[in-house]
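are you around this afternoon, could really use another pair of eyes. what follows is a protein written twice so to speak, once as letters and once as structure tokens for the fold. i want to understand how the tokens follow from the sequence so walk me through it. anything you notice is useful, everything is just below.
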Amino acid sequence: MTHKFTLAFFILTAMAFTRCTNAPGGEQQSHQGDSMAKFTSDSNFAKAHETPENIAFQGRGEMTEFPTSDGRTGKAYLVKPSAPANKFLFLLHEWWGLNDQIKREAERLADSLGNVTVMALDLYDGNATSDAGKAGELMNAVKPERCNAIINGALAVAGPDARIATVGWCFGGGWSLRSSILAAGRGAGCVMYYGLPVEKANELALLQADVLGIFAKKDDWINEGVVGKFEALAKATGKNLEVHWYDAAHAFANPSSPRYNEVAAQEANKLALDFLRQHLED
């Protein structure tokens, strides 16, 4: 009896220690934040996000609010089609927050896709910035539980019969994947631009949508090693993952960024648009 108690105590202690040392190198952290938050301690990561161009965008979309499962309210930039439809596209913003650039992308995709309701979700609860230091603070403060609540609230808006595709960039690239996982059987397709994928089989196992991954060869963080592990995980869990690499830097698809690569961005955007059209029509 004493032996069994000692063994059980050891196992529980080890499990608790593992939960508290999920940061790289075993560093303890007070809470489990967003997976990309680990990059905020790297000064080069902030330097790779130069101040974006100021965009004074005024579109036809509107900000909307909806209840979330944690008893609060979520926000999104909503672009409605001319006629009601059960097809939805969720956009997940970069570490800057839901800014005019993401709203512009929402309208570009809405115009290109036609009869699809586009929702650019605000995972920062109204916060946005053009300062890299502040953006790092915002991303570092993200609580996945809150993001999940916002996404689940948007899923409730879409309804049980909707077909839902997702697309995101950088911070939002990882959350595009997580949104498609939460969408379960309603997931129509997921596009992630240079976002950090999930790393656990039990998380990816819940995904029911195909994934298009768009990555940059000159990205020092979401690199070939990271993507290679994701490809292996997708294969092991039986998921459909299509990966494309571009000879460009992180954030290459953002036209408001100094790192914008027009040739690569146009090619990647066409690929993403074709993917979304195909999967929302299936």
